[in-house]
Amino acid sequence: MSTAVEIEVGPQPLTADDVIAVARHGAAVRITDDARKALIDGRARVEELAAGETPAYGVSTGFGALATRHIAPELRERLQSSLIRSHAAGTGPEVEREVVRALMLLRLRTLATGHTGVRPETADALAGLLNAGITPVVHEYGSLGCSGDLAPLAHVALALTGEGEVDTADGERRAAADALRGAGLRPVRLAAKEGLALINGTDGMLGMLLLACRDLRGLLRVADITAAMSVEALLGTDRVFAADLQRLRPHPGQAVAAANMRALLADSAIVASHRGPDCTRVQDAYSLRCAPQVAGAARDTLAHAETVADRELAATIDNPVVLDDGRVESNGNFHGAPVGYVLDFLAIAVADVAAMAERRTDRMLDVARSHGLPAFLADDPGVDSGHMIAQYTQAAIVSELKRLAAPASVDTIPSSAMQEDHVSMGWSAARKLRRALDGLTRVLAIELVTAARALDLRAPLRPAPATAAVVAALRQRVPGPGPDRHLAPEIAAAAELIGDGAVCGAAESVTPLR
């Protein structure tokens, strides 16, 4: 765990960078003095309600369809612990550590507003888990994205009480009670409303949205790079990316993508070699010519998603909530529709960017359309198959991405005896988007290794300085053209270079990208 950076958590909104720092890089958290005051004030109002005779949802009543039962004071501590135990009902594969840490941080920030009415020591306990690197085991299935990500957050709350399983900072699986003791932390005994406050939020789907936005922004730069490499490899033109042409359709994302393509292809000897009057080709295929339009639309979709994420970062999600004037009111802010919609929207953009990359790859392998490249870029076509099956792999992934682009948020299954009769499925939208981003990374990796091989085969003509730098970076891990060899490790290496930023870094060593 890295503690070089400390993120302050208080009533003010977090930023996407804050969430990434804690979720991915192990930054520590600190609850601010403003938050402590807000926590004390909010708790005072909840305790006032708990002492009164008027029923208050989640304080002196049951939950969901059981909200009509009044709970006697002597049973209210049991009410909260029972809520957490029963709601920690997830199943299936385990959710990634970065996702769990993101949802923990986002729930802590909501607690720190004081609007949930938890005690300061409960917020401190959640911060303690994050700072100790203790990550509760959370499962894939269990959230309908309405009333919050109930099951995932309940598994976190269960660990706070010393129950369930967790992973320690060094990755060891331990019983929560043992891990807490080893870190010098005490289990929480939940008081009135605290169990509900710990689980009634959209923190899981928001955390995954923030992580996805960060990843997709980088992948779209890579898509510009691989597209530019493919344009060169297929003897395409850069004239269609001219700024004055792009201004005729003033979408901001398109302008960014086209500017990147122009910068990446600047001073390309390959492009210059066929600019003369003897070139008989009038127009490139859509997968080359329209690359900025598709990658640009994906950028604009991403910008909308980031706007929604920023609004959610400023939100307080709980039910009921303690308002500034002391009222405690039920509400529907836990519904995940705003987040679910954009998660699904991003999956559509991811599928389309990948589909276009696969089409460019296929053109480089087809001797009838590759303008002089050997069939499948093979060393000895017929004896060697070259990248034939790498394109099969791309096609399989793209087909899967199209299935993952089917929206989850249009589905709803009533729950809680029809009290919760419309749900968002936002958690499911987030889970499939993570899989889609992994698929896009691998599709771009295959285009990268294919385009690099094609550019090498265009020698002695040289690619642009920026794309040449990318080829050189790839060649540190993946050899150049030659007889057939085991391709899977080369695709994996290219995917790693994309994931760790080396591909973008190589291009930007020559020219800045937007």
Automatic annotation (TrEMBL):
MF terms in GO: histidine ammonia-lyase activity
Gene Ontology biological process terms in this record: L-histidine catabolic process to glutamate and formamide; L-histidine catabolic process to glutamate and formate
Residues the record lists as 2,3-didehydroalanine (Ser) modifications: S147
EC number in record: 4.3.1.3
Classification via Pfam families: Lyase_aromatic (PF00221)
GO cellular component: cytoplasm
Top EC class, one word: lyase
Gene3D superfamilies: Fumarase/aspartase (Central domain) (1.20.200.10), Fumarase/aspartase (N-terminal domain) (1.10.275.10)
Subcellular compartments: Cytoplasm
Post-translational modification: Contains an active site 4-methylidene-imidazol-5-one (MIO), which is formed autocatalytically by cyclization and dehydration of residues Cys-Ser-Gly.
KW tRNA-binding (keyword) present: no
Keywords assigned: Cytoplasm, Histidine metabolism, Lyase
Reactions catalysed: L-histidine = trans-urocanate + NH4(+)
Cross-link annotation 5-imidazolinone (Ala-Gly), location: C146-G148
The protein's annotated pathway: Amino-acid degradation; L-histidine degradation into L-glutamate; N-formimidoyl-L-glutamate from L-histidine: step 1/3
Family: Belongs to the PAL/histidase family.
NCBIfam families: hutH (TIGR01225), PRK09367.1 (NF006871)
Name of the featured protein: Histidine ammonia-lyase
Organism of derivation: Marinitenerispora sediminis
Gene name, Swiss-Prot/TrEMBL: hutH
